[in-house]
Amino acid sequence: MGLWNWFSRTGPSGFGQNSTAEEVTEGIDASHLTAIVTGSTSGIGKETARVLALRGAKVIIPARSLESGIKVKESLLEQNPDAKLQVMEMDVSSLESVRSFAQSFNSSNKHLNILINNAGIMACPFQLSKDGIELQFATNHLGHFLLTNLLLEKIKATAKETGIQGRIVNVSSVAHRRSDSSWFDLNVINDESKYKPFNAYSRSKLANILHSNELSRCLKEKGSNVTANSLHPGVIMTNISRSLDLNIMSLATLVKPFLKSIPQGAATTCYVALSPQIKDVSGKYFADCNEASPSKEGEDEVLGKRLWEFCQQILKKSKAEK
Fold it and tell me: Name one Pfam family in it (predicted).
């Protein structure tokens, strides 16, 4: 978070911590764009989908069940009958489900301009995913890592065909600052005896930033007209915090006047996804709709490469076991 935030309500971009998603996208025509927003059935993901659709974009709503996705689509259409929305089934914590979604999307949709990896869970009790991976790491990072890899050629091809720069947006968290690099081992991640819910959340959020940075480096190296950035949306009380213990929830109640609303929480995501101000900006971390600095681990290129290889090994093993 920039120092300007302590003295001003806005930063160099003209926006700040109190800006809403509608405000940061005002006047932007996104009618030529197609976007996927994971986690768009509730919270800031739903608000992100609503505002992108309000600006004219075709928005894909991945949902764990078609029934839940259709309910969200109907509620968004009530607010904006002209919204271009498509519901598709996907559980981001399941590698098989992610692969199925990507295959369906790649075969049925011509273009993809924007991928917003927003879905997440926070500080939940220890659980393993269907693939035997700690659930927060599986949901918040690994599923999105696989999804991005499977959709990457589609995004690059769209950018080449249309001349419009593609954007990949990873929703991280300031919580990434609580994590270090001592966990690049599946035996460590999956060790229930060492599991601390918020530490596991922080680990997955650091992974989001490292993923964006390494992806950005690879895209630049290959000359692709696609950017990759990460962001902290702000502290917002949404469904993601339902697993927090009572002490933290009580504290959250006390500081509630200082928390962001959902429209404010979706602002940085929509800014990074649509703003013309950040054309050609890649491998950066944003907060309050302005460029910010992550932790030193979040800027570590060697760490980013290690994480990439680590995730590739997990995915390779999971595919071999199918």
Answer: adh_short
As to burial, measured by CB atoms within 10 angstroms (0-12 exposed, 13-18 middle, 19+ buried), residue 118 is: buried
Give, in order, the Cα–Cα distances in Å from 93 to each of 19, 30, 141, 175. 31, 29, 9, 20
Angstrom CA distances, 147 to 71, 77, 181, 229, stand at: 24, 27, 23, 16
Alpha carbon separation from 142 to 125, 145, 209, 314 (Å, rounded)? 18, 5, 13, 9
The answer to whether residue 271 is catalytic is: no
DSSP 170: E
What does the alpha-carbon distance between residue 179 and residue 199 come to, in Å, rounded to a whole number? 7
Of 202, 219, 230, the closest CA to residue 292 belongs to 230
Contact 175, 235 (CB under 8 A): no
Task: Name, in order, each residue with C-beta under 8 angstroms of 303's C-beta and a sequence gap of 6 or more.
Answer: 181, 210, 297
Token pair of 292 as six digits: 């910010």
pLDDT at 251: 43
3-state DSSP call for residue 35?
A: strand
∠ CA 89-90-94, nearest 5°, is 150
pLDDT tens string 231-245 = 999 998 655 444 444
- Pinpoint the alpha helices (H) of 113-221: 135-137, 143-162, 186-189, 197-221
Q: What is the mean pLDDT of residues 175-179?
A: 93
Non-local (6+) Cβ contacts of 206 within 8 A are 172, 176, 179, 295, 297, 298
> Which is catalytic among the residues 195, 201, 271, 285?
195
CB 321 within 8 Å of CB 33: no
Structural tokens at position 288: 């309050």
Token pair 């071999």 in the structure block, residue? 320
The per-residue pLDDT for range 16-52, each reduced to its tens digit, is 999 999 999 999 999 999 999 999 999 999 999 999 9
